[in-house]
Design goal:
CATH topology of the largest domain: D-amino Acid Aminotransferase, Chain A, domain 1
Order of helices and strands: EHEEHEHHHEHEEHEEEHEHEEHHEEEH
Strand content: 25-35%
Number of helices: 12
Shape: globular
C-alpha cells in the first residue's frame, strides 16, 4: 500500500482496463474514471472506483476542448497526480491533459511516436530501423516519385487509427488519386507504404526506467488486415522460445522502444517478416496493453497480468524500484471470431488445456495453454477448423474502431 495515496485519473473511451483500475485501488490510490456517456452501463469495476464522470460522445468522439475544461474543473477539488489512457484512442487526450495540468508522464511530442504511424516511420528511419518504403500523403510530387520507385501493391493507412481500421489496398496510381478525391481535406492524415507479404508478429513489453523488464513475442495466425477486411477467425500464439526469429524480434523491439522514448509503461509493437527476403520490418507500436484478449493470452502462458503491472509502474513512475513477479514460460494461444449465435456454446471445447472462454454477445473465443508448443499448435489447427464450422460469421469493417 502507498504511504501517501494519490489520485489517478483513468481515461477510457472504450470498455477496457478493469484490472488496471483494480490494481490502482488495491495499491491505495484514489481512482477516478473518465469515460463516454454511452458506456454508463458498461461493466466497469465500480467497487474499485471512487468517482466516474461521463463525457458526451458523438460517434465515439470527444471534443478535446471540452475534455480540458471538464478535467480542469475537476482538478479544482481533486489533486490529480497521474493521468492514464487505457486505450489507443485516448493517448492524445491523456498527453494533452498532462501538458495542460503539468502532470508527470508522456507529453504530446512523445505520444506522437505511439499514435502517429508517420512519426513512427520517420523516427525509425533516423536510427536505421527497417520499415516498409512509405510516403506521407502531403506533397503530390513526392507521391509521384514514390510510384516511380516503389513497385505495387501499396497500403493506404490512416496515421492515427489502430490495428487494421481504415486500411485500403492500392494497386495503381489512378486508384490512389480517386481515393484522395474522396478523402479531400482529410488526406494529409494518411500515409502510403509498400505492401509486404509475410507473417505478422507482436511483441508485448513492460518498461521501467527506460529498461525492458519483460517482453514476450507472438505470431498472428493471419494478418490482422485480412481478418478484419476479409472476415476470418483471429488467432495469435506464443513463438518458439529461444528461436532465431524470437531473438531477432526481441532485439528489434528493444531498439524500437528506445527510439520512441517510452520511459515507463506497457507497449504492444507489431512487425512483419517479408516473405520474399526473410527480413523483419517494424510496422507500428503503441503505449498500451494489446487488444483482442492478447493480455489474457500472455497471462495464461506467463502468469504476468499486463494491466496490473502497468498500474504498478504508473504509480511508481521512477520513484522506487519495480520488481517483476515470478513468471512461467509456457505456450498459449488465443482464438476468437464473430459468431452467428447470440451466446455461443463453447462447452464442447473441453480439453484440459482450455483456460479461458470469451463471454460476449455474438463472439466466440478461447485461450489454451500447455508446456509444449506442439500441443498448442495442434489445438489451434483443430479449433480453428471447428470455429469456422460452429460459429463463424462476418460483417463489414467500419471505417473507425468502435470497441
Amino acid at each position: 500500500m502507498l504511504k501517501n495515496p494519490f489520485t489517478i485519473l483513468c481515461i477510457a473511451s472504450y470498455e477496457k482496463g478493469a484490472d488496471f483500475m483494480r490494481q490502482c485501488f488495491a495499491e491505495g490510490c484514489r481512482v477516478i474514471l473518465l469515460t463516454s456517456e454511452s458506456l454508463k452501463n458498461a461493466n466497469w469495476p465500480r467497487e474499485s472506483l471512487d468517482e466516474i464522470y461521463y463525457m458526451p460522445d458523438v460517434d465515439n468522439e470527444w471534443k478535446m476542448l471540452d475534455v480540458i475544461k471538464a478535467v480542469s474543473y475537476l482538478a479544482r477539488s481533486e489533486n490529480i497526480q497521474r493521468i492514464v489512457a487505457l486505450d489507443d484512442f485516448d493517448v492524445e487526450k491523456a498527453a494533452t491533459l498532462r501538458e495542460h495540468l503539468r502532470v508527470p508522464g508522456m507529453g504530446e511530442t512523445t505520444a506522437r511516436y505511439f499514435r502517429d504511424k508517420l512519426a513512427m516511420r520517420m523516427r525509425s528511419l533516423e536510427i536505421g530501423i527497417n520499415v516498409p518504403a512509405f510516403v506521407p500523403i502531403i506533397n503530390y510530387d513526392k507521391i509521384r516519385e514514390f510510384f516511380d520507385n516503389v513497385q505495387p501493391p501499396y497500403i493506404l493507412k490512416p496515421r492515427m487509427q489502430a490495428g487494421a481500421v481504415g486500411l485500403k489496398k492500392i494497386n495503381n496510381p489512378e486508384e490512389l488519386w480517386r481515393t484522395l478525391d474522396i478523402l479531400g481535406d482529410k488526406q494529409s492524415y494518411y500515409l502510403m507504404e509498400q505492401f509486404i507479404s509475410g507473417n505478422i508478429y507482436h511483441v508485448d513489453s513492460i518498461i521501467y526506467k527506460n529498461e525492458i523488464r519483460f517482453a514476450i513475442a507472438h505470431e498472428y495466425g493471419l494478418p490482422p488486415m485480412e481478418v478484419a477486411h476479409d472476415g476470418r477467425v483471429f488467432s495469435s500464439r506464443t513463438m518458439e522460445r529461444g528461436s532465431d526469429d524470437e531473438q531477432a524480434l526481441l532485439a528489434l523491439n528493444k531498439n524500437v522502444i528506445s527510439a520512441m522514448g517510452l520511459v515507463h509503461g506497457i507497449s504492444h509493437t507489431e512487425f512483419i517478416k517479408g516473405k520474399e527476403n526473410g527480413e523483419f520490418y517494424f510496422l507500428e507500436t503503441s503505449a498500451r496493453v494489446g487488444g483482442a484478449n492478447i493480455a489474457e493470452m500472455i497471462e495464461a502462458s506467463s502468469g504476468i497480468n499486463m494491466w496490473r503491472e502497468w498500474a504498478k509502474i504508473e504509480i511508481l513512475r521512477g520513484d522506487g524500484s519495480y520488481r517483476l513477479p515470478k513468471h512461467k514460460e509456457e505456450y498459449s494461444a488465443v482464438l476468437q471470431s464473430l459468431a452467428k449465435q447470440e451466446w455461443p456454446d463453447l462447452s464442447a471445447y473441453n480439453e484440459k488445456e482450455v483456460v479461458w472462454r470469451l463471454k460476449k454477445k455474438y463472439h466466440a473465443g478461447l485461450i489454451f495453454v500447455s508446456p509444449r508448443r506442439e500441443r498448442v499448435l495442434e489445438l489451434l489447427a483443430n479449433y480453428t477448423k471447428r470455429f469456422y464450422e460452429d460459429f463463424f460469421t462476418s460483417q463489414p469493417l467500419k471505417d473507425k474502431a468502435t470497441s
